[in-house]
Design brief:
elongated, alpha+beta, 221 residues, 10 strands
């Protein structure tokens, strides 16, 4: 839903001077308050990437060469849990799967202009990040991501030629000219849950970095 398309107007009733106070008592929120509550800083994304990277490296260190997790390991991001699975049973490859169930649209528009209310029963979406790492050079040879907007992206790298391919509606990848964006801004809709956006951008940051010719993130060393 595009909250910016709301065209209702609100004419204050001057016979009720306390009407604005009544809105606040009933926990109505202004457009500015909703924007602020959903804003995610680059620092928060960076810290989240570092936290997941550290957890994945730890997991990789304790698993044997032909071992895999029996159950997911968790990491707390905001008020949600990110579940991490690792599989090292395929020769020369490490498979890493991450997922988190996050809220959608916790703020809803009212019929009053620029006034929003909290959604007490938001629905959830499962965000996923699946990565296959080459043990030889630590680069992602294959990967997929399903972010907050539900748009699925698949990536493949030919480990012999270095050729990269990505299939998606929005993902931008132009080899040797312009790498993909490090932050997925498409899903940053007004009224989204902050933790959901944070996890969305953390997953996208990891995925986009690992798709580079020379990634800065190393998940296995």
């Amino acid at each position: 839903m595009n909250f910016l398309s709301i065209n209702q107007t609100y004419k204050p009733q001057f016979s009720q001077p306390n009407s604005q106070l009544k809105f606040k008592a009933n926990k109505f929120y202004t457009l500015e308050e909703v924007n602020k509550a959903s804003t995610v800083s680059p620092k928060e994304v960076k810290e989240g990437v570092e936290k997941l990277t550290k957890k994945i490296r730890f997991l990789n260190g304790i698993l044997k060469e032909n071992d895999k997790t029996k159950q997911p390991v968790t990491a707390k991001i905001g008020d949600a849990l990110v579940f991490i699975d690792m599989d090292k049973t395929t020769k020369g490859k490490t498979k890493i799967n991450l997922f988190a169930d996050t809220k959608r649209h916790i703020y809803e528009p009212t019929n009053i202009f620029n006034q929003f209310k909290k959604n007490d029963n938001p629905y959830y979406i499962r965000q996923k990040l699946n990565i296959v790492i080459s043990n030889k050079d630590g680069r992602m040879s294959e990967g997929s991501i399903k972010p907050l907007d539900g748009t699925y992206t698949h990536f493949e790298r030919n480990n012999k030629t270095g050729k990269r391919n990505a299939i998606s509606k929005y993902f931008s990848l132009v080899p040797n000219v312009r790498e993909c964006s490090e932050q997925n801004k498409i899903a940053e809709y007004l009224g989204e849950d902050k933790t959901s956006i944070t996890i969305n951008n953390i997953f996208f940051k990891i995925f986009s970095d690992l798709s580079k010719v020379k990634p800065n993130i190393n998940l296995t060393k």
